Prior knowledge:
The protein contains two helices and five strands; from the N terminus they run E-H-E-E-E-H-E. The chain is of the alpha+beta class.
Amino acid sequence: xxxxxxxxxxxxxxxxxxxxxxxxxxxxxxxxxxxxxxxxxxxxxxxxxxxxxxxxxxxxxxxxxxxxxxxxxxxxxxxxxxxxxxx
Length: 87
């Protein structure tokens, strides 16, 4: 994985939540913490549940994240199989 991308397992993510969404792959955090995405394998797709920092209007986010999520998906074997869900 690209060392500049913060992508790792989040031990605080309750197992019961992970089971509901699919096979938990890890959590991505943008450089300045404006964007977080929990990634789950759901069938043949990788689903990123994206949230923004508390109080931050998503349109005001300046951290880039889409290319990084696509890079993670590719490295996990889900090239062109990434679905984004904004929370």
